[in-house]
Amino acid sequence: MENVSASPDELKQQILDRVARFAEMAHAPRPFVPGETPVPVSGKVYGAPEMVSLVEAALEFWLTAGRFDAAFCEGLKQVTQRRHVLTANSGSSANLLALTSLTSPLLGKRRLLPGDEVITLAAGFPTTVNPILQNRLLPVFVDVQAETYNVDLQALADAVTDKTRAIMMAHTLGNPFDLDGVMEIAKKHHLWLIEDTCDALGSFYRGKPAGSFGDVASLSFYPAHHITTGEGGAVLTDNSLIKRSVESFRDWGRDCWCPTGRDNTCKQRFERTFPNLPPGYDHKYVYSHIGYNLKMTDLQAAVGLAQLQRLPELEAARKANFAHLHAAFAQWSHLFILPRATPHAEPSWFGFPLTVKDEAPFTREELMVALNERKIGTRLLFAGNLTKQPLMQDQPCRISGSLENTDRILRGTFWLGVFPGLSRDMLDYVVAGVEAFLARRGLA
User: Distance of alpha carbon 261 from its chain centroid, rounded?
Assistant: First the structure.
């Protein structure tokens, strides 16, 4: 029976207690039934803490970025070891903001200008490259290594010209690229480095978090990723000018940096003078960039804040699942190129990539169809070779060197899930599915 004398705080606690009970009952993991329960490649791992945090934010009804967002950003600063963290409404938006921030006049002579070259990977996800095109910059595509799926350093070095201004690429499937080599090239030629860390939260290189090396980096919190806010992303940097640029592009292009719901942080709201505007024009309505509204909501941030508490266990589960699959697939190394971590890297793997060797007596598609029939999820390594995708057919770009390994990925690479929601029974079922396929062909 409802307690009519309860205070708002007491009612709120009753609601949150019931939400926790509901989550434990309605969202508990279900038993795995081989052949009936799907084995997905990715998914969200959550429970009562996330649902309680989400409902608490809903009860406050702030909706746009607020106290949960501020707390989430502080938590991400600790995890990523970056000075500035700004959330966004998606990882793709984070990539757009990260690259676009480098076009700001705030950066003076180092700002990126139309026609400047940005080196990237042909084997990647479109939204790592789309911001380059959208800013009228020229993507320069280079090849990757066969086992790490990350940039070939010699190909990267060979691609640099007097027009090159930046490098933007992802840590493929959570495996950090060779940051020693890439940073050396970037510093030698005075290039910006944008780390797409959307698949690599929790990965390390020489003991430092992926995403903490470049001038600016991005994260994604889509449900497939290491932690989730549903939709969401973040931009990371130590550079105060880049931070201010990201903030402006994300917040409608405004010059003002006041947090949502606060005014006059600069203490000069009506005291500034800008060319062509009346003296004292309200700083909240001065626009210095061609911006957007790409902010995260407090509802999303509330989920992310609870997810951050799970991150260590989620990282450990991904690593254990990857190790289990790697040990199982070692027996078939004559048929598949097995994944390898970059030297000095400790990946929190996003997936378990496999490349069917050219000499194998079956195709990737044949194996994927067989696994799909057993309800085992698979995914391609994103676009395979972006230069051959329809989106690039009318776009300006430059291909530097051979894309031999990228084309091998286009033909023969796919990946299996290692996300923490997969039990050991599920992983063993995946291995058994591959073994059954090979046995039918006399290969196991």
Answer: 29
Examine the residue annotation and report whether 225 is marked as an active-site residue of this protein.
yes
Give me the sign of the Cα torsion angle 222, 223, 228, 230: positive
Q: Are 141 and 122 contacting, i.e. CB atoms less than 8 angstroms apart? A: yes
Nearest to 109 by CA among 167, 212, 192, 214: 192
Q: Which of 27, 171, 190, 225 is catalytic?
A: 225
Asked whether the whole model's pTM tops 0.90, one would answer yes
Residue type, 7: S
Coil, strand or helix at 56: helix
User: Residue 64: helix, strand or coil by DSSP?
Assistant: coil
Q: How far is 143 from 121, CA to CA, in rounded Å?
A: 6
Residues pairing with 87 in the sheet: 234
Residue with tokens 């806010």, as numbered in its chain: 229
87 in Cβ contact with 301 (< 8 Å): yes
CA distance 414 to 42: 14
Locate 297 and state its tokens.
């909501």
Q: Are 361 and 443 in contact (CB under 8 A)?
A: yes
Asked if 420 and 45 count as a contact pair (C-beta separation under 8 A), the reply is: yes
The span from the CA of 287 to the CA of 178, in Å, is 39
CB contact set of 251 (below 8 Å; sequence gap of 6+): 291, 293, 295
Eight-class DSSP state of 103:
G
CA distances from 52 to 57, 78, 125, 146 (A): 9, 23, 34, 44
Question: Residue 322 corresponds to which tokens in the numbers above?
Answer: 């990857």
Distance CA 328, CA 429 (A): 11
Distance linking the first and last C-alpha atoms of the chain: 64
| Count of residues in the chain | 444
pLDDT per residue rounded down to tens, the chain (444 residues)? 456 678 999 999 999 999 999 999 999 999 999 999 999 999 999 999 999 999 999 999 999 999 999 999 999 999 999 999 999 999 999 999 999 999 999 999 999 999 999 999 999 999 999 999 999 999 999 999 999 999 999 999 999 999 999 999 999 999 999 999 999 999 999 999 999 999 999 999 999 999 999 999 999 999 999 999 999 999 999 999 999 999 999 999 999 887 777 787 778 899 888 999 999 998 999 999 999 999 999 999 999 999 999 999 999 999 999 999 999 999 999 999 999 999 999 999 999 999 999 999 999 999 999 999 999 999 999 999 999 999 999 999 999 999 999 999 999 999 999 999 999 999 999 999 999 999 999 998
What's the CA gap between 288 and 249, in Å, rounded? 9
